[in-house]
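Hey, resending since the last one bounced:
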Amino acid sequence: MGDDHNNRVPIIGVARHRLAVDGQGVTTLVAFHGCTLRCRYCLNAQCLRANGFSRTITPAELIDEVMIDNLYFLATGGGITFGGGEPAIRSEFIDAFCRLAPSEWHITLETALNADRHHLERLLPHVHQYIIDIKDVNPDIYRRYTGHDNQRVLENLRWLLSHDGMAERIVVRVPHIPDYNTDADVNRSREYLDALGICHIDEFTYRRMERE
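The structure tokens again:
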């Protein structure tokens, strides 16, 4: 796959030397601009603004930039975590990047999983771990909070789980969302995920931060 101007994408930023927050080992977080959702308490609201990105970059340019930490990645089993925004919609870029990167790097995707299936199919050979922010399995709560439907999210999650060994590679984040869901709603989400066979659930509380 060529590394031409068509594979240049906008990013919010690149954060190095992250430990135990974005996947295993020492990681570098690459945050993409752009998202499929409009969450009320968006942590990176700049990803929704037309001018909210810091710069654009190609896969080869990103490889050159992050290669400085290759020894850290190899020594700790770490690598690159793609976030955003919604990184899944940048699947063509990630695919090209991973074809250039050392095969030993651990690739993590921090995603809301609300993206077309073809993106996940392209990413499947490359991603070692998925950190999935599921919001809430209740469609009404999800729609009020994100402005979108969650049917695609749950279908994509079931599709991922249909692959051998995938349950161990997925962490699902189940948030308490002030003014949107209750403890009972969170428990129902956990029960749903348990029934699917999810092994790792991260329950936490969102900060109240209104989207601009």
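The two ends are 37 Å apart (CA to CA).

Sorry for the duplicate.
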